[in-house]
Amino acid sequence: MKAVLVPIIVCAMITRLSAQTAPESTGALALDLLKKAVPAGENAVISPYSIQSALVMAYAGAAGVTEGQMKKTLHYGPGAVDSFSSLRSEIAPPRDGELEIADRLFGQDGYPFHPEFLSLLKSKFSAPLEVVNFEKDPPAAARLINAWVEKQTRKRIKDLVPESALDRLTRLVLVNAIYLKAQWAQAFDPVLTKPGTFHLAGGKTTLVPMMSRAGRMGHLRGKGFTAVSLPYLGGDLEFAVILPDAELPPLEASLKPEDLSSLCEMPSSEVSLSLPKFRIEPPLLKLGDVLSALGMPSAFDKPRGSADFSGIAPRKPDDYLYISEVFHKAFVEVDEKGTEAAAATAVVMMRAMMAPSNEPLKVVVDRPFLFAINHIPSKTCLFLGRVANPAGAGDMDGGGGKETR
Fold it and tell me: How many whole angstroms from its chain centre is CA 181?
């Protein structure tokens, strides 16, 4: 019988990069997933950092072909576990605002997890084991996990793990949750927020509440895009807008991980910015098939019998762990005061059978764009998203939402 390992993961484009640090791995996977996991033209937000944080915990117990495939697909370099552990320590709570990261393991009571594995995750990721009984009551275990995630994300992420995703063969769920609430270093004046025209794909337009602000901001002209960054109070976090020069092809198809890194070191310029308010709360993402197609099918026991997580628990021909699914859910809201964002990822394991000018640069974000929330000191992409239609991203005050031709 196979045992299922379920990781929860929250923030991808395939690159040829191999050995990378944790921030570089996070940016590369972010682009892979944004390209593959959400159809082009739809609003999207993921936390590549959350997703990697959950997956690296499973990777810590992988061996053989499974370890090799995960390393390549997730863009891990040597010492990936230590690199992500160091990154977790570096991303400290900001001086102003909130940034909280939590990890936890939910494991079957009595299952022979290697003590060395449990000790490693507890010391490296502050991820203790919480004993549950999947065999007796899988729905109760799902409710317990979801309640923990909801608490860590201030009730922004609910029902991360569907009750139907767990059964009596579930043995381990690895979970990461991240919550961020930060104010702009310089807020937008609500009086200046006016309805503005946003150009949708296909030639349609819609009215959205458009915020306006002028002053010194990070500014970068990249290949095919213009980027502007807005710092949050404290200086360690920033919000970056990535505005494509043209509607097609999709911007994420041409972006590279180094482009995401460059957003953390943009030179300052005088900019006049118009940016729509938006709120995005996409449905639950199931990343199993995407990750498998990207190059790590063995982790999902494809072909049958190939999964090797013998570093987590003893592997026997009729009793071994594999990943049954990876669930991810994220939320982001941007307004005149700042940003609130949250995400969670769960990896479920079963028992198997991302030059100054005299005149202000005018940047009007009036067409589909990408955004990133970055931790500047480490150059890590915490959240990456796509805004295809601000009016369709959630209920917002201060603007219309009526589509026109």
Answer: 15
405 within 8 A of 203, measured Cβ to Cβ = yes
Contacts of 149 (CB under 8 A, 6+ apart): 8, 157, 158, 160, 161, 175, 177, 344, 346
Show the tokens assigned to 333.
Answer: 């809201």
Contacts of residue 366, Cβ cutoff 8 Å, sequence gap at least 6: 196, 197, 198, 199, 210, 274, 276
Listed residue (68, 53, 58, 55) closest to 23, CA to CA: 53
Q: CA-CA distance, 108 to 282, in Å (whole number)?
A: 31
Q: What is the pTM of this model?
A: 0.90
Can you read off the two tokens belonging to residue 385? 């998203």
Q: What is the pLDDT of residues 331-363, one digit of tens each?
A: 999 999 999 999 999 999 998 753 444 567 889
Q: What is the distance between the terminal CA atoms of the chain, rounded to a whole angstrom?
A: 57
Distance CA 72, CA 345 (A): 20
338-352/320-334 β-pairing: antiparallel
Q: Across 114-204, where does the E strand assignment appear? A: 129-132, 170-183, 194-199
pLDDT digits (tens, 9 = 90+) for 4-52: 444 443 332 223 333 379 999 999 999 999 989 988 888 999 999 999 9
Calpha distance 356→153 (Å, rounded):
39
